[in-house]
Specification:
CATH class of the largest domain: Alpha Beta
Largest sheet: 5 strands, mixed
Helix content: 10-25%
Strand order of the largest sheet: 4-3-12-7-8
Number of strands: 23
Structural class: alpha+beta
CATH architecture of the largest domain: Alpha-Beta Complex
Strand content: 25-35%
CATH superfamily of the largest domain: Oxidoreductase, molybdopterin-binding domain
Number of domains: 2
Bound molecules: ligand MTE, cobalt (II) ion
């Protein structure tokens, strides 16, 4: 704080004297075009030294970026303890989500659990029920993988019509991190678990909600990780410190945080989280369960309601994100006319499996209004559906698993709005 204070008062003083000097210069050359003081004058930042390396032991984004933060929508849930906030995807680029602004979803608040207090039990259909400490886990071989985590409720408010005016709110229940973790299959093997493909593992967290979920053994043995690092550093408290489950491509609810127990069972437990919640109401009113994989989806993050075009007609970078729980994104198309014509976008880099892929359409905006859409394709050949196509199956009373094509109406001033075209 001391450093901040000195910085502020020094700046204020300097701004005063710089303004006086600028006044004199401009006055002396009244008829000429106003010179750009950022080019013609020596600036504060070049005249004085900056912050010392002993002042900021762990850095935060510079204060000019103070709006790039998670946001919640108060009316969505009864209490912020069992609630959700949203990643500011309108303001991020590339694919990795910094932990500090990655959406949070908890059913009973984020808990503080230390490494010394941490225990992970594996029991049920195993030869040797085991309890691991955090130190025990660090002695197993670990891997690094980048995966997206999308809450099944992402875009869930949009079923009945365009609702929330910002991509942060319509699509921000997603993050994408590089995890360091132990393949779950290694821990199951250590406990001598039965591994028949018709068995299940039931996973639960140490928080009051416990958020228990049943996962088929085939998935547990495939790519599920017991993770303790994200983007190189320890998981943040809100993302499950010290250990969470990573279930690549599958709905975020199964990514149990503060993981405390894994039970090998011969049947699904049919817990609250997989019966009354996270099931899909269909057009005919019946509910479908076990929709685990998040289908291919994409969205334009800029321009979008929170990221309007501010520079007028001419070169324009249209940018967005695409992902698929089934594997790699192979192609993303962008439409400026509400899906009548499509142009293929450029991928920032080749798509990774079950991870966010960044796309760009480097284009020329003629200044007329646009109905912007993106449409993702994945390596299975699946094509992201329109809202109409999804509604035929799912009606309008659904909440979860809405992966429809999103439309932004961009007007001639460059402002964008969440709309629906029929
Ligand atoms: N795990 C526990 N223990 N408790 C929870 O409330 N919420 C789940 C899942 N794991 C939850 C949990 C849901 S619904 C989602 S979408 C993801 O965690 C969100 O992970 P995040 O908070 O790291 O974004
Ligand atoms: Co969720």
């Amino acid at each position: 704080m001391d450093g901040m204070f000195r910085e502020t008062s020094r700046r204020a003083f300097l701004r005063g004297s710089a303004a006086a000097a600028a006044g004199a210069t401009v006055g002396g050359a009244a008829a000429a075009a106003t010179p750009d003081p950022l080019i013609t004058e020596v600036q504060d930042w070049a005249s004085f030294t900056g912050t010392g390396v002993d002042e900021v032991p762990y850095g935060m984004p510079i204060h000019f970026e103070k709006d790039v933060i998670r946001r919640n929508v108060e009316w969505l849930t009864a209490s912020p303890i069992s609630s959700i906030n949203f990643t500011p995807i309108h303001a991020l680029d590339g694919t990795i989500t910094p932990q500090g602004c990655a959406f949070e979803r908890h059913h009973s608040g984020a808990i503080e659990l230390s490494k010394p207090d941490y225990r992970l039990m594996i029991n049920g259909l195993v030869e040797r029920p085991l309890v691991f400490t955090y130190d025990d886990l660090e002695r197993f071989p670990r891997e690094n993988h980048v995966y997206f985590c999308e809450c099944a409720a992402n875009t869930g408010m949009e079923w009945a019509g365009a609702q929330l005016n910002g991509v942060q709110y319509t699509h921000g229940m997603i993050h994408n991190m590089e995890y360091t973790g132990i393949p779950l299959r290694l821990l199951l093997a250590e406990a001598g678990a039965q591994m028949d493909e018709n068995l299940w593992v039931y996973v639960e967290g140490a928080d009051a909600s416990s958020n228990g979920r049943s996962i088929p053994m085939a998935k547990a043995l495939d790519d599920v990780l017991v993770a303790f690092k994200a983007n190189g550093e320890a998981l943040r408290l809100e993302h499950g410190y010290p250990v969470r489950l990573v279930v690549p491509g599958w709905e975020g609810n199964m990514w149990v945080k503060w993981l405390r127990r894994i039970e090998v069972t011969d049947a699904a437990v049919e817990s609250r989280e997989e019966t009354s919640k996270y099931t899909d109401v269909l057009e005919d009113g019946t509910a479908r369960k076990w929709t685990w994989v998040m289908d291919a989806k994409s969205v334009i993050t800029s321009p979008s309601p929170q990221s309007p075009i501010t520079h007028g007609a001419g070169p324009l970078v249209i940018s967005g994100l695409a992902w698929s729980g089934h594997g790699k994104i192979t192609r993303v198309d962008v439409s400026k006319d509400g899906g009548v014509t499509w142009e293929t976008a450029r991928l920032g880099k080749q798509g990774d499996t079950k991870a966010l892929t960044r796309f760009y359409l480097d284009t020329n905006w003629d200044g007329s209004e646009m109905l912007l859409q993106a449409r993702a394709m994945d390596e299975t050949g699946y094509i992201q559906p329109t809202k109409e196509q999804l509604r035929e199956l799912r009606g309008e009373n659904s909440v979860y698993h809405n992966n429809c094509i999103q439309t932004w109406w961009v007007d001639e001033s460059g402002k964008a709005e969440n709309v629906e075209i029929s």
